[in-house]
Amino acid sequence: MLTVASLSRRQLETRLAGPGLLVQTGAFVSRIRSPIRHVADGIALLYGDYPIHGEDGFADFHVGLQHPDGLRRWYQPQVNFDLDGQLPFEPLPEAHAFPMLEWGLNWCVSTRAHAYLMIHAAVVERGGLAAILPAPPGSGKSTLCAALVNRGWRLLSDELALFRPEDGLLVPVPRPVSLKNRSIDVIRGYVADAVLSRPVSNTTKGTVAHLKAPADSVARAHETARPAWIVFPKYEAGTTTSLTPIPRARAFFRVADNAFNYSHMGARGFATLAGAIEGCASYDFRYSNLDEAMAAFAALEAPR
Amino acid sequence: MAASETWRLRPGQTLQYRQWDGECILYNDLSGDTHLLGDGAVELLLTLRRGPATRAALAAVLQAEFDLEPAELDLETDTLLHDLQHLNLIDTLAC
User: What is the ipTM of this complex?
Assistant: First the structure.
């Protein structure tokens, strides 16, 4: 199958500005339309390994990043994110266009993919077993995820754990890892060949940059994984690395608190999450040193 | 509450639950909520799943399971029945 990298820069821009670029990210195909250079830059840099479909192909999400009409097109230009012609968000400065695409694609999945139980969590896999890292912003989840996927773990997602109710397996949706503020330089220093998008400052999340997903994770985006560990990470400067078991019932409610659609799914959501909790060992994880964190994850044993 | 009062599981409740390490989580089919329950509440619900039962019979279940003092048993039984009724998990049968 063709990938984004098979297109010349001109072909990429022509598709984006015209019929749209149909990109496959795991289980989803998005048709992306945008004449904005920052969007083409981000896609060219970070999406080279992703499969593309012909312009007549099926897409789950039809999204656009366009300049609003009016004078703002010329004076301090802005960008709108649209889904099927609807504008769910306020416009942002044009320079925020690529992060806005990433946030918008996450939003498309988290508000529509109700065939899955969706948790706000990073997911990484090793040997067929997945570690799920649910955590609020500021917990160090993405930094940890970025480090893990560059130390032998496969990226399933930086933001979305998708549990398939039929069998309880995790469905990958590997996309670039969103890094914020200090973690951008931390990962630059930790991952020698890190490919990062241009940092964009003054966003609602501070300065953000996106880390390219490993090519192997993109190539294996059709491979599901069995949930084995639920790890609630918390970065605390100067703290000693520690992994503390959490009783299952308590872990259940904490994961449910991080779900996008647990209530929406009703009894099916309960059964899916209960099955996942039953098969997993759950921990609180405190860390301040990435090498120690990698060692702690490497030492995780498969739950019985 | 009268000892002869008869309790039942609310129609529509299927009692999807999991018990781990002495704690129970239960899905409430009527409200869509998920509850964290103690052992006593679970005993009462499982008893009522087999069919309606009087307060006296339910108190006897708790007594057999937890070996409570009489005053403590009365209070525990009434509190649990009240709480489970409040959650729409159980109700009384009309005479």
Answer: 0.90
pTM of the entire structure? 0.94
In chain A, which residues have their Cβ closer than 8 Å to the Cβ of B31?
A: none
Measure the CA–CA gap between B51 and A275, rounded to whole angstroms: 28
Rounded CA separation A204/A120 (Å): 18
Q: How many residues does chain A have?
A: 304
Domain definitions of chain B by residue range: 6-92
Query: CB count, 10 Å around CB of B45?
Result: 20
| A249–B36 CB contact, under 8 Å | yes
What's the whole-number mean pLDDT along residues B4-10?
93
Mean pLDDT of successive 10-residue stretches along chain A, which has 304 residues = 96 97 98 98 98 96 92 78 94 96 97 97 97 90 97 97 98 98 96 96 94 98 98 95 97 97 97 98 97 98 90
Residue A277: list chain B partners with CB under 8 A.
18, 20
Beta bridge partners of A3: A51
CB contact under 8 A, A249 and B21: yes
Other C-beta atoms lying within 10 Å of the C-beta of residue A123: 29
Q: Which residues is A179 bridged to in the sheet? A: A209
- What's the order of all strands across the beta sheet hosting A28-33? A52-53, A21-25, A28-33, A61-66, A78-83, A92-93
Nearest CA in chain A to B21: A247
Integer Cα distance of A262 and A269 in angstroms: 5
Determine the distance in angstroms separating the CA of B28 from the nearest CA of chain A, rounded to an integer. 8
Q: Is 3.90.930 the CATH number for B6-92? A: yes
Main-chain dihedrals φ then ψ at residue A65, nearest 5 degrees: -125, 110
Q: Residue B68 and residue A125: Cα distance in Å, rounded? A: 49
CA distance B53 to B44: 9
* A228-A143-A149-A135 Cα dihedral, nearest 10 degrees: 20
The answer to whether the Cβ–Cβ distance between B18 and A266 falls below 8 Å is: no
